[in-house]
Amino acid sequence: EAPDTPVTTFNAVTATDARRFATFFHELLVGGVMLPPSRFESWFLGLAHDEESLDRTLDSADAAFAAVSSV
What pTM was estimated for this model as a whole? Predict the structure, then answer.
């Protein structure tokens, strides 16, 4: 499926790029953000996440997306 196509089926999920997800995942870890290590899992936001945590996550995600774009 095209990169901008919503993922709505199991086949669409398994067609995603595991290598690019791995890059994204590891770049977030470098930024201090821990997320589920599988591209098949969801992220959850909780009340324990303060504004500083959210800012760090967004900054780390920006860096991770930049790294993924070069893969």
Answer: 0.79
